[in-house]
Amino acid sequence: MKIRGILKQSYKGNLTKIYLFKFFTSLHLVGGILIPFFRDWGGLDFTQILFLQSWFSFWIFILEIPTGAVADFFGRKQSLALGAIVNAIAALVYGSFPSFYIFLLAEFLWAISAALLSGADNAFTYDTLRKLGKTKSSKRVFSKIESIGKTALLIGSPIGSIVAASLGLNVPNLLMFFPFMLAFAVALTFKEPVSRKVVESKRYLTIIKDGFKYFAKNDILKILAVDTIIISSLAYFMIWFFQPMLERAGVNIVYFGLVHALLVLSQIVIMNSFGKLEKLLGNKKRLLLLSSLLLGAAFMMGSFSNSLPMILLVIVIGGGFGLSRSVLFSSYLNKYIESSKRATVLSTISMFRRFLLVILNPLVGKMADWSLEYTLFALGIAVIVFTVFSRVEEKYLVD
Asked: Partner of 9 at 20 to 30 A CA spacing, among 35, 95, 119, 157?
């Protein structure tokens, strides 16, 4: 009993460490200056900017399953540590020289890092909770992790805008090397919650094949995955278009980071209010409907308004609900995935989202170069149409 207690205490330490890991890997200084960085320092237009994101998504699509299988085969700890150190290298490459081809290399490295982290972080956390016998608290823990990540963004974005305005648009990227290396150091101290002997008994290709089969056979998992993949992919464009909306409203770049911090703060408040909002609305599905409808309405309002108060509402309310919505699904999805397949199946879901973005990014970029206003309106219509036809039912949303 004493040994079991000591083991539980060591696994409990994982939660504190994953919170620190999330903070350091999320301490991005570029969130408020993405468009000025690419456009003014890098010399790119919207089509090129979003092509880079398509390139990034393409490589994650290619790498998602192999890196998910790496997490299952070698361990989540190794996957997370490697992801952090590659991220640090990518940040240095991105800030090194204003060249489209250098940016392609940086995005490739960033994709390797993101693929190594994706799925492995959630799987590591959920399996730690399983070891502690606390899986019912997964929604609260996942929300806390995301809130910590958002807090890091909230801190980093205003600092990044000030640094960019005073020292140069590339300097925030260079400075991100340091928190990413701290994340690497934290990952080395994780205690692996899944015995490697269990997963190492399976061949690498078997892990990959089983992950696909598991996802394909589970109808509820597919319905939940399709919903979160599509809405989160559309919400993602709020990140790229809130800065041009601010420019249209006459806001100086120095304040972009502050507005991004407000967007992040909104997500933190919303994520930590999921339980209260579900009770207020009467069930879980109504909260999902509300969040996606607010996102759709925000895109449409942002398409025709130059008013700063209206633009701020669009970003903070619409973006806040739209970008925090996927956190709800982290808890729901995990209920339908067994531990040995978790990293691979979560990576499969993430891979499909990336594949959708490979297609959407260049199309949306071309549209934005033609007309930002029509692009925002089209995104809003797409969100609302999919929301109306979503097949998610209340009974699928299990705590």
From this structure: 119
